[in-house]
Write a structure and sequence with these properties.
mainly alpha; 13 helices
């Protein structure tokens, strides 16, 4: 039995167990767990290809995982720095932007039924949950395809994460569901996990709610990195394609934005700034990469000339 068949057999078994786990326990939202799952999957792809390739998996993914774990643990700083919480001012700005209407209130008034879970509630939950999966899966695919692409994408993920963290510390903001609970808005339900009930996956509902309550900072709403990371993924992949169909990739961030507003997780203003952060990071790193590439080309071109000059006899 060749290594190719062994890799296929191990991959089938791995993804089968993964699917069973997701059905039984729900999609994990912890970055550490997700990183372990990605590393195991990548390790399977390295079977029979030498220990050096397996070592590269560890060398590449361990620092990245540690950085994101540090990001997750550092989000609590936004609660401990003593910065004033923004609630009423953001709610008023949102109403001004939409002519006196709050989009989350309007969407829930027209779409939300307290005693009935609709199909679009399930779709919204799937889109919301995809935030925890898309970034590590896309990173794994890029690593398998070309390590240089992986480095470019991961650098964007890390810079965007810490740009968001800095803003959370300096500008803590309550999302719509929390502002409503504090009396600044009409009642808004937090619906992001509700859709699991549509497919009778109450365990997944409870898992996501537990993750939201225990592992996330409730006042880290500005900017929306849920929207920012979805837009970043679309921007990066679209930049690798030449087909006009690449524009369809932007449906994903559009659906993510609609989901976040409907479920009461974010204001539209949060989405705007999340998009600006993602776009700015992407463009800034494109320019940085071009500058670095041009610098390397200049050094490569100048190097042989300097050597030739040094070897030419004087006079």
């Amino acid at each position: 039995m060749g290594w190719h068949r062994i890799r296929i057999a191990c991959a089938v078994a791995y993804f089968g167990l993964l699917a069973f786990w997701f059905v039984a326990e729900g999609v994990p939202t912890d970055r550490k767990q997700l990183s372990y799952l990605v590393v195991i999957g990548l390790a399977i792809s390295c079977l029979g290809r030498g220990w050096r390739r397996l070592l590269w998996v560890v060398i590449d993914w361990l620092p990245f995982t540690l950085v994101l774990m540090f990001y997750d643990s550092s989000r609590a700083l936004a609660d401990t720095m003593g910065m004033p919480l923004h609630e009423q001012d953001i709610e008023q700005a949102e109403r001004w932007l939409f002519g006196g209407v709050d989009p989350s209130v309007w969407l829930q008034a027209h779409l939300y039924t307290p005693l009935h879970v609709h199909w679009y509630d399930a779709l919204a939950t799937l889109i919301y949950t995809s935030h925890f999966v898309v970034t590590p899966v896309l990173a794994a695919v890029l690593w398998l395809r070309q390590r240089q692409l992986w480095l470019r994408y991961i650098s964007r993920v890390i810079v965007l994460s810490f740009a968001g963290l800095a803003t959370y510390i300096l500008f803590p903001e309550a999302p719509p569901w929390l502002a409503a609970r504090d009396g600044y808005l009409p009642p808004i339900a937090r619906l992001s996990a509700r859709g699991w009930e549509y497919v009778h996956a109450g365990f997944a509902h409870r898992l996501l709610v537990a993750g939201q309550n225990g592992g996330s900072n409730p006042v880290a709403a500005m900017p929306s990195l849920h929207f920012g990371f979805s837009l970043l993924a679309a921007l990066f992949v679209a930049g690798l394609l030449r087909s006009r169909w690449r524009l369809l990739l932007y449906i994903y961030p559009l659906l993510m934005g609609l989901t976040l507003v409907y479920t009461g997780e974010h204001y539209v203003l949060d989405l705007i700034f999340g998009g600006l952060y993602a776009g700015s990071v992407h463009l800034a790193l494109i320019r940085s990469e071009r500058w670095w590439q041009e610098r390397r080309l200049r050094r490569t071109a100048i190097g042989p000339m300097d050597t030739a000059t040094e070897l030419t006899p004087a006079g």
